[in-house]
Design brief:
The protein contains 6 helices and 6 strands, in the order E-E-E-E-E-H-H-E-H-H-H-H. Strands 1-2-3 form a 3-stranded antiparallel β-sheet, with no helix packed on it. The chain has a 3-stranded mixed β-sheet with strand order 5-4-6. Strand 1 and strand 2 form a beta hairpin. It is elongated. The protein starts with 11 loop residues before the first strand and ends in a 6-residue tail after the last helix. Bound molecules: zinc ion.
């Protein structure tokens, strides 16, 4: 590995340690030519296996592109999409596998997307899970409403305030 300061073609490892989450190794290196120190990181390149059998490297950009269409016209910004992609990557890396089937990547997207925007989630889920009828949507919407009831801070109290659900 070239020294990033003087381009000397060799460097000496002076310390190796596993990163906090256990998915990478960091090496502290020293250049024998200029004496400066730098750090390198080694991690497994996460591969995604598509249904066709082709594998390709996992990238957050692909996750963002994959959900962007579902988010069209929704109040979702780039930072939120980047955060979502990060959550997806963390979920997948936590499995500790070098190759992950693409449908598991899709599954890992569903939760964070639901938290981000429910309409985008419905759009994405309808394609990903292959919704074929209104019933499929209805079931999913019922499940989403059920989640709202479980969250006391959500808009349920407001609905009660208008009297419709009062005693
Ligand atoms: Zn150097």
């Amino acid at each position: 590995m070239y020294c990033p300061f003087c381009r000397h073609p060799d460097s000496r490892v002076i310390d190796s340690r596993v990163a906090e989450d256990g998915t990478a190794i960091r090496r502290r290196r020293s250049c024998p030519e200029c004496g400066r120190r730098f750090t390198t990181q080694e991690s497994v390149i996460l591969m995604v296996a598509k249904r066709s059998g082709v594998t390709e490297p996992f990238t957050r950009e692909k996750i963002v592109r994959g959900v962007q269409r579902a988010c069209q016209g929704r109040p979702v910004d780039e930072d939120q999409l980047a955060m979502l992609a990060q959550r997806v990557e963390e979920t997948i890396r936590a499995r500790g596998l070098a190759v992950v089937p693409s449908h598991e990547v899709g599954l890992a997207i569903l939760g964070p997307l639901r938290d981000l925007d429910e309409v985008a989630y419905l759009r994405f889920a309808s394609v990903y899970r292959g919704f074929e009828s209104l019933d499929d949507f209805e079931k999913e919407i019922t499940a989403l409403r059920g989640r709202h009831l479980d969250e006391p801070d959500d808009d349920v109290p407001a609905a009660r305030a208008d009297g419709k659900h009062g005693k």
